[in-house]
Amino acid sequence: MKEIIRKAEILVDALPYIRSFYGKTFVIKYGGAAQTKDDLKESFAKDVVMLNYIGIRTVIVHGGGPKISATMEKMGKKPQFLNGQRVTDQETMDIVEMVLGGLINKEIVSLINRHGGKAVGLSGKDGGLIMARKKTTKKLTPETGVSEIIDLGLVGEVTVIDPVLIDNLDKAGFIPVIAPIGVGPHGETLNINADFVAAAVAAAVKAEKLILLTDVPGLLDKKGETITTLKRSQIQKLIKDGTISGGMLPKVQSCINVLESGVGKTHIVDGRIPHCLLLEIFTREGIGTEIVL
Fold first, then answer.
1. What pTM was computed for the model?
2. What is the domain extent for residue 265?
């Protein structure tokens, strides 16, 4: 009987959060271990379905880098990266679109639907959802000390998100699942970083939260402990001392950008923990790092 009562108490504890977030939209960037391990896939899908059943609208933006690289190698093409970004020629772009827009996207849709949700798969090409332009990056040449522009090929950055399709699907009770593929000014297909797409989507739909799933507990301090709450005023200091570095830099920048655009809160959450979404959203302590203005 005590265990049954405890379960009821857990539900009651979640009530203030459910009431506060009812009717709001959460944008979730789905990637890392949560996207590759079967048990974590199941818990993610159940979390998303539960959020929708209690009145929280969800929009999923997914990555798929490891699967893209594995598929390229199976097809005899070696993946190439510059400054941590995939060099994307036309052949690579065809593989990226096949893996992201086809294989991965439809797997996520099927998983959510199997657990009682109503998911719909999209790419940025659907309904003019994601307009983009080619992204340029610079690399310092050690011999000359001069930065040169590097052509990454068909790699893009978001210019405009048209939220109409997302809003209509949300209002009809569907869960949009978006592959981070955009359309350039001349109709070309562009490969875009999923973190940046998720941030742009969150800003466009005026989301209550942007949640980024990662393979780390959150932002860690110098002692290796999770920073539970981080304010914008603290970020530059943490970048300078190396606390925030590498792959966390674009995630933190994405969080700051969307907060400045009006999104309520952003979260960096450990996707390796089963039911990480519910634990972060419906408990006072949370399990990751929240970034606020």
1. 0.90
2. 22-292
Nearest residue to 186 via CA among 134, 234, 141, 222: 134
HSE at residue 73, side-chain half, CA atoms within 13 A, is 8
Give me the CATH number covering residue 195. Answer: 3.40.1160.10
Residue 31: pLDDT band with limits 50, 70, 90? confident
> Has residue 8 been placed in a domain?
no
Domain count for the chain, please give it. 1
> Is residue 146's pLDDT more than 80?
no
118 assigned to some structural domain: yes
Residue 61 lies in a domain: yes
Identity (one letter) of the amino acid at 15? Answer: L
Cβ-based neighbour number of residue 235 at 10 Å: 19
* Backbone dihedral region for residue 32 (phi beyond 0: left; psi -120 to 50: alpha; all else: beta): left
CA–CA distance, 165 with 122 (Å, rounded to integer): 10
Amino acid 173: pLDDT: 92
Among residues 39, 30, 168, the alpha carbon closest in space to that of 109 is found at: 30
73 domain-assigned: yes
Q: Measured between alpha carbons, how far is 84 from 121 in angstroms, rounded to an integer?
A: 27
